[in-house]
Amino acid sequence: MFLRSRFTVAIPQSKLEIAMSNPCTHQQDGTGSPTNLRHVAVVDPGSSVLPFDYYFCRSLIDRGERVTLLASHTQYNVEFLSELAREDKAHVELWRISSTVANRAIGILNYLRMLTFLLVNLRKFDVVYYNFPKGWLLESIIFRILGHKAVFCIHNAVPHGFEAKRHLGTRALASSAHRLLFVSAWTKSDFVSRYGPTYENLSDVMQHGIIGIDPLDSPQSYQLCESFCGVAFWGNIKPYKGVEVFRLLPKDWLPKAVDKRYLIAGKWDHDLSHLRDEYKARNEIDLHDGFLTRESVKDLLAQDYIFLLPYRQASQSGILYTLLFYGRYFIGTDRGDIGDFLRTNGLEKLIIDDLSEGEMRRAIGWLMENLSDVQAKLVSAQQSYTWQWGDKVA
């Protein structure tokens, strides 16, 4: 139980044996000579963002690099691990760290084993990209040991739900890393505004791209919809995500081309159980309470809902890039990447200035009246957000 296990998939045995014999040695070309590809380690200790990890690693491979992902076994999104392991220039190392597969004590022990593996093999890696650290005090030390190879990937300037402007652990990690990599220009700007201009020259941006819920899926084209089947929220339901806005949405205000149907699909946070029970009692909203299977999400994203992103706090949203991948229309608040994305792509009229019935009515009405223009702009955005690296990014 305590030992790590390399992730294996149904691939030819000869290739599997080569990959498992020494995952960190340089690969060879057809002449038997070692290639000079840069070897990159991507670390996600708890497998917190496996869809991101998959597309991030794929972008590195497309850039001409070899990748080793250090992550955790998990009960969710395992298809992204298996598909990445099939890549010629990718290798996956897994430990039982995530709370979905191990208790806290075993998770901590296995995390220490992961870090030991990373340090023992450090000379074989050119760069180490570190996502979602588990314990900032220990990892600040690790970053200093990694030296010029340490790149801290920052998704949020402070943890979700953290009220203060600055977070001590995040600052310590950023100060210990050699470089910082942000997933959008907005997240970089937000971080620098909070922690100071010292970090400006240490920072790079690799724009988050569109993501599918299945690594084998292809982006879906945007269609002109004659009608929509309702208004929906999808995702884990946390206090900062603003789902209380559904209290303000009487069914008779929706345009004729939008069915009078509301849907909230996702796992509810315990702190919002009172709101969930209120919605159940009203019997006006379709509630799907619980983690959705991949098939259920695919089913949902195949339907012509107008998706609502009413977040009260956000830096970047994976839901946004998933909706973009599957050709879904949406409106959202002016929070983080949501507002920045809509404004950058000429869709600022889809920004909800406040969570009110009037703003909802205005944004959805404008969407319906300008659907052809919105479609064209979203098609362009879908083609642009493709995980492209700048030439100067570490």
Element layout with pairings:
Blueprint: E1 5-6, H1 13-21, E2 39-43, H2 50-62, E3 66-72, H3 78-85, E4 90-95, H4 104-120, E5 127-131, H5 136-146, E6 150-154, H6 168-176, E7 179-182, H7 185-195, E8 203-205, E9 230-234, E10 262-266, H8 273-282, E11 285-289, H9 294-301, E12 305-309, H10 318-325, E13 329-333, H11 336-344, E14 351-352, H12 357-369, H13 371-384
Parallel strand pairs: 2-3, 2-5, 3-4, 5-6, 6-7, 7-8, 9-10, 9-12, 10-11, 12-13, 13-14
Antiparallel strand pairs: 1-4
Structure characterization notes:
With 394 residues, the chain is of the alpha/beta class. The chain has 2 domains: 5-205, 3-Layer(aba) Sandwich (Rossmann fold), CATH 3.40.50.2000; 230-384, Glycogen Phosphorylase B (Rossmann fold). It contains 13 helices and 14 strands. The chain has helices at residues 13-21, 50-62, 78-85, 104-120, 136-146, 168-176, 185-195, 273-282, 294-301, 318-325, 336-344, 357-369, 371-384, and strands at 5-6, 39-43, 66-72, 90-95, 127-131, 150-154, 179-182, 203-205, 230-234, 262-266, 285-289, 305-309, 329-333, 351-352. It has an 8-stranded mixed beta sheet, with helices on both faces. Helix 2 links the parallel strand 2 (39-43) and strand 3. Helix 2 (50-62) runs parallel beside helix 3 (78-85) and helix 5 (136-146) runs parallel beside helix 6 (168-176). The longest helix has 17 residues, at 104-120. The two termini are 36 Å apart. Residues 6-34 have low confidence and may be disordered.
The spatial strand order of the largest sheet comes to 1-4-3-2-5-6-7-8
**Major sheet description:** 8 strands, mixed
First-last Cα distance = 36 Å
Please name the CATH architecture of the largest domain. Answer: 3-Layer(aba) Sandwich
Question: Pairing-aware structural class of the strands and helices?
Answer: alpha/beta
Query: What is the chain-wise order of helices and strands?
Result: EHEHEHEHEHEHEHEEEHEHEHEHEHH
Quick one: overall form? globular
CATH class of the largest domain: Alpha Beta
The number of helical elements comes to 13
Q: What is the number of beta strands?
A: 14
- State the CATH superfamily name of the largest domain: Glycogen Phosphorylase B
Tally of discrete structural domains:
2
Kindly state the mean pLDDT as a whole number? 87
Q: Could you please say which CATH topology of the largest domain applies here?
A: Rossmann fold
The percent range for strand residues is 15-25%
Q: Report Rg.
A: 22 Å
Task: Give the helix level as a range of percent.
Answer: 25-40%
Low-pLDDT parts are 6-34
